[in-house]
Amino acid sequence: MKVVFTDLDGTLLENGQGPSDGAKASLAMLRNKKIPVVPVSSKTRAELEYWQRKLGLHGPFISENGAAIFIPKKYFSFKASGAVSAGRLLEIKLSKGVSKPRKFLAEMRKKGFETESLSEMGLQRAMELTGMGRALAAKAKKREFDECFLLHSGSAKELAKIARKKGLIFLMGGGFCHLCIGHDKGKAVKKLAYLYKKEFGQINSIAIGDSENDIAMLAAADDAYLVRKPDGGYASKKFKKAKAKGQKGWIEIIAGILAGPDDAIISCCLPQARQRSI
Question: Which of 4, 29, 91, 116 has its CA 20 to 30 A from that of 23?
Fold first, then answer.
């Protein structure tokens, strides 16, 4: 059984817009083949519930860079260890919360780093930066685990170094920086893949992403793919690579996956030789 773990912004989605006709067709083919598609995103639970509906997905999803796994009740025949009821869903928290990252950023501002957090900025400002409408921008501001921010001045490399010494994880997304503690996309993918294996037996986990904050997810999967970034480059020298950028690259990879044999999958990929996404 195949399970597709996919990033959203810059991968399945472009510029905060809904899926293209080609992406819809790919999702429909995956649905017909009974291949689950699991969004693994820096987006909040509220945002991901919106995109689940838009994409026609009804299974689990992973929010805020691996901070929490959300599973529809009765999706699996057993109750996953650590899962608690969260409305109509079960939630498995892997994060230690957002208070320490926020406190760290406040300290760094006093030391000359100029940052602007999504959760603290006004709604209009969030709309301008992300290109989202009012309702979706409000959902994006509801950060529970991962502090999403802009770094206007100061070295990102230096900030990441200081964060690591404090036990924090610094990530670069498509347009925003992220600070978190105790979680990443890779840990969440491994946890959810284990649950799929417990339910269905052997699985083939497939991960698709575009940016640096997807690397842990890609490393955790059996097969991992990168799409080209807007500038035409890739986030890493590792992993299999689509020829196309963004959503077109995602469609290309899915076509290869659905072709069946591994050589068909690899043939769709190359070996390695605006508005801000969150």
Answer: 91
